Amino acid sequence: MVRFLLVFSFFLCLQAEAQYLFTGELAEQSAGSTVYLSLVEDYRRSSRIYFDQIIRKTTADSLGRFAFEGNNLSIENRLYRIHIDECQDQNSPDEYFLGNCPNNQSILFLANNRDTLAFPATYANEPFCAVESTNKASDKILEIEAMKEEMILDFTEVRSEANTRLNLQTWFRKWQEYGEALQEPVLELYIYGFLSDRTNETYDYYLEEVGDNPYYQELLGRLQLKYPGASFTNAYQREILTDRLLSNPQNNKQELLIWILGALLVISILLNIYLFRRIPGKGTAVETDPTKLTQQERKIALHVLEDKTNKEIADALFISVSTVRTHINNLNKKLGVGDREALKVQLQQQFPPGD
Length: 355
Fold this sequence. Notes:
This protein folds into three domains: 18-138, Sandwich (Immunoglobulin-like); 143-247; 290-350, Arc Repressor Mutant, subunit A (Orthogonal Bundle). It has twelve helices and eight strands. It has helices at residues 2-17, 140-157, 161-181, 185-195, 203-209, 215-226, 231-247, 249-278, 295-305, 310-317, 321-335, 340-350; strands at residues 20-25, 34-40, 54-59, 65-70, 78-84, 105-111, 116-119, 132-133. The strands form two sheets. The chain has a four-stranded mixed beta sheet, with no helix packed on it. The chain has a four-stranded antiparallel beta sheet with strand order 3-2-5-6. α3 (161-181) runs antiparallel to α4. The longest helix has 30 residues, at 249-278. The radius of gyration is 41 Å and the shape is elongated. The chain starts with a helix and ends in a 5-residue tail after the last helix. Residues 1-16, 90-98 and 281-288 have low confidence and may be disordered.
C-alpha cells in the first residue's frame, strides 16, 4: 500500500510539473543530424520552415534517436514543428531558397507542455510519417494533409468551371464540418489558413462566402472562448473583418458613402463656426445699443459729454469717484472703445444734441 502511494505521488508530481517529452527516430543516414523544434504561432506561416520560429535544437545520436524534454512550452495547445536540416553543414545562407532547404524533412503537430509524443520511423525507414501521443489531437495535421491530397485529386478529374464551383461548395462544407468536429480551434484555424490563402484556387470562393457564412464568426467565438488574447485569435478577428468588407462591394460602397457624408458634415460644422466668428460683433461682449445701458450709466454718459471730470461727476451724483470709474469702464466695454475721447465720440452718436 505504501509503495502504491509513493508511485501515485510520483506521477502526480510529474503532472504538476507539466513536463513534455518528444522523442523520435531518424533514418540511419541522418544519424548525427541536428534536429530542431519550432513554435508555429502564426497560422499564415505554417506551410514551410521559418528559422525565426525555432525554439530548441538537439543532435540525433549514432542510431538516429533524438529527444526534446522540459517544461518551457505553453500549457495550451499550439502548433509545433520538428525538422532536420540537411543543409545546416553548408554554413551559407545562399544555399537556402526563401529560408528553406530542399533537403529538410519535417512534421507539423499539435502539443502542449504536458504531452508525451513519439515519432517512430516507418517500415520504409522514413521519419516523421506517424505520431504516437498522449494528446489525441497531435496527429490530426497528418489527417488534414491527407485530405488535402484527396481534394487535389478530386479537382483534377474534371476541370470545367461548373464542376470546379460544385467541388468548392462540397469541399468547403466538408472542411468546415470536419474542423468543427475536431473540437480544437487551432486545427480549424490551420484549415482556414489553407482555404483562405490568397495564392490558392480556393481564395475567390472563400471571399464569396465569408460575408454570409456564419461558420467564420462561430470559429471566432470558439477561438475567443478557448484562446482569448492569443496572437492568432486577434489576427483571425482582424482578417475576417477585412475580408467581409472585400467580399461585398455593395457594402463597401455604402461604408464609403457613410464615411464621406460624415466627413462633409464635420467640415460643414467647422466652416460655419469659422464664418460665425468672422462676423463683426458676433461672439464678443461688445454692445452698442444705448437702450442696454443702465439708468446710472446713462446719467454718467451725459456728464461725460459735458466734459466733466470723474470728481465732478461723483459730486453731482453723490457717489464715490471709484464708482464713477467702474461705470465708465463698463461704458467703454459696452461701446467698444478704449479711452475717454473715443468714448465721447461714441456717446455723441448715441446721444445726439437735444436728446
